[in-house]
């Protein structure tokens, strides 16, 4: 039998890996869908003259 602690550790690792993979997928999709956001562009025309 596998101890309960080992099962809990494995489940925690699996959840962390799935969260990381989902975050990577979302960031990749956002980069492909909206390329002009990364890197952010600053419009200097809106800045007042100093």
Low-confidence stretches: none
Helix/strand/pairing category:
mainly alpha
Q: Output the radius of gyration.
A: 21 Å
Instruction: Please tally the β strands and state the result.
Output: 0
Strand content: under 5%
Helix count, per DSSP? 1
Amino- and carboxy-terminal Cα gap: 73 Å
* Largest β sheet strand count, sense and barrel closure: none
Q: How do the SSEs run, as a string of H and E?
A: H
Mean pLDDT across every amino acid position: 78
Query: Per the principal axes of the C-alpha atoms, what is the gross shape?
Result: rod-shaped
Query: Percent helix among the residues?
Result: 55-70%
Describe this structure in words.
- This protein has 50 residues and is mainly alpha-helical.
- 60% of the residues lie in helices and 0% in strands.
- It is built from 1 helix and no strands.
- The chain starts with a helix and ends in a 17-residue tail after the last helix.
């Amino acid at each position: 039998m596998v101890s309960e602690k080992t099962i809990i550790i494995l489940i925690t690792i699996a959840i962390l890996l799935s969260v990381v993979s989902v975050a990577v997928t979302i960031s990749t999709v956002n980069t492909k869908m909206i390329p002009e956001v990364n890197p952010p562009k600053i419009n200097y025309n809106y800045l007042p003259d100093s």
